Amino acid sequence: MNTTAQTSILSSNDGAASSISHNLSYYNFDVTNIVDSWYNHNSGEYGFKVTYYDQTITDYNSLYSANCGIADYVPKLYITYDLQTSGITNGATYFIRSVASECYMDIYGFGTDLQLCNFNGGTNQQFTVVYEGNGYYSFTPVFQSSYRLDVYNAADADGAQMWIYPSNNSPAQRYKICDSGSGSFYIMPQCSTTRVLDAWGAFDDDGIDVRLCTYHAGANQKWVFEKTESGNYSRGITSTISTERQNAWAISENDYNCWPATTKSKYYGWNTLSRDIALAASNTIALTLAAGGNWTIFPNSGNMLNHFLFETGTPLSIDFKYVNNHWDYADLRRKKWIDQALSASEELSVLNKEIIFYSKTEEHNDAPATVNDFKYSIGSYYSHIKCDVLKTNSTTYQATIYYTLEDIYDWDPTDTAKIKGIISPQDLWELHHGGVSKHYQVSGTNTLTITWTQGQRYDTGANITDVE
């Protein structure tokens, strides 16, 4: 609306008015809720009434009408529609499942043809959906980011082939995603007004084509969009690997049994006999520490030190449930990561369909420097999650969560502080460096079963069974 005099306006929707101030030559105000109410027939479609905000004032004001004859002054109502589809997140990556077959859209063999295949979680079954404006979306295969889902030759015909093709922004690569109810959608290309993506032919079979077909509202034309990721969790992987931990283990392996000593060692430049004598002395002290009464109140620390001294690098499995239930720090970390997994479950889960997701990266849990059996034995550690979840109705869930610790029992070659006043981490590292003892990998899994209602968490209503 144009104006040259007034300083405010009342916007009204069936009597609910509010004052809108301005300091320009026109008013620009949001009428989204009003238009939405008209569209859904929740209120009378009365239009707009413009009045002076305080009619008790005696002065001169004017408002141009539609027939004023001056085009720039004619009152206008501009309505801008947001045509993005509710339930589809712009820029998110999805697996796209056929309602009819329970199979997923798949770029066959990482080539170009679009088919349906059983779920495998591969990047050829993952599509990033981007809103391109005017109600249309594009679909980018994750394994081939310069390509888009495309109607072959932009053909508006039943049986037209679907494939991927280099991005060209054409109508053959733009699609409306239309809600078909019950969490599924129709997908209609811009190059057609009557046809949608269709599981073609014997649509309950693995390996069939996805093509265009005239809209008929059948199950083979309905598609469910299942998110691949939420935060640090993904359905598109089958395990969690920590590059940081792998690198640390590789360094530890390279440091093992080095003769002569490397520059990391305080024995660098020593002759073999002198180094042998020094290592033998440190080993005697370490064995005495591990075997004596020094570890009476720290049994786990003593056991793990013995494993280092005698087991030549054999991996060790620990009771991670026990650790979590007897170490306050570990318990707090478990609650944090379990709560994150429950939140991810609510975003990734599919109604009445069991799905599995994993941590994309391991979390580093840096324990505080306190005098504690677990701090001495485990110290800082990595953890990750595998979650098997089922959404049982619109707001309830059940899951089995495998919360796993991964660690390396190793010593710091730069730490000279004496443990119990007897021997330093540097001295123990030297035993590894000289091949007398050996660092090793540590792991353990805490399994929990959880049922909860949306929004509940570890300490706020979720029903948790600590299985093992």
Strand content: 25-35%
Helix content: 10-25%
**Helix segment tally:** 8
> How many β-strand stretches?
23
Overall SS class: alpha+beta
Q: Which segments are poorly predicted (pLDDT under 50) over 5 or more consecutive residues?
A: 1-26
CATH class of the largest domain: Alpha Beta
Characteristics of this structure?
nine-stranded mixed sheet; four-stranded antiparallel sheet; 3 domains; 8 helices; disordered N terminus; alpha+beta; 468 residues; 20% helix; 29% strand; Beta-Lactamase; Trefoil (Acidic Fibroblast Growth Factor, subunit A); elongated; single chain
List the helices and strands and how they pair.
Elements: E1 8-13, E2 16-21, H1 32-39, E3 93-98, E4 104-107, E5 114-117, E6 127-133, E7 136-141, E8 147-151, E9 162-166, E10 175-181, E11 184-189, E12 195-199, E13 210-214, E14 223-227, E15 229-230, E16 233-234, H2 243-255, H3 272-291, H4 299-310, E17 316-317, H5 320-326, H6 328-348, E18 355-359, E19 363-365, H7 373-377, E20 381-391, E21 396-409, H8 425-433, E22 440-453, E23 463-466
Parallel strand pairs: 17-22
Antiparallel strand pairs: 1-2, 3-6, 3-14, 4-5, 6-7, 8-9, 10-11, 12-13, 15-16, 16-18, 18-20, 19-20, 20-21, 21-22, 22-23
Helix pairs in contact: 3-4, 3-8, 5-6
Structure overview:
This protein is α+β, with helices and mostly antiparallel strands and 468 residues long. It has three domains: 1-81, no CATH class; 93-227, Trefoil (Acidic Fibroblast Growth Factor, subunit A); 233-466, 2-Layer Sandwich (Beta-Lactamase), CATH 3.30.450. The chain is 20% helix and 29% strand. It has helices at residues 32-39, 243-255, 272-291, 299-310, 320-326, 328-348, 373-377, 425-433; strands at 8-13, 16-21, 93-98, 104-107, 114-117, 127-133, 136-141, 147-151, 162-166, 175-181, 184-189, 195-199, 210-214, 223-227, 229-230, 233-234, 316-317, 355-359, 363-365, 381-391, 396-409, 440-453, 463-466. The radius of gyration is 33 Å and the shape is elongated.
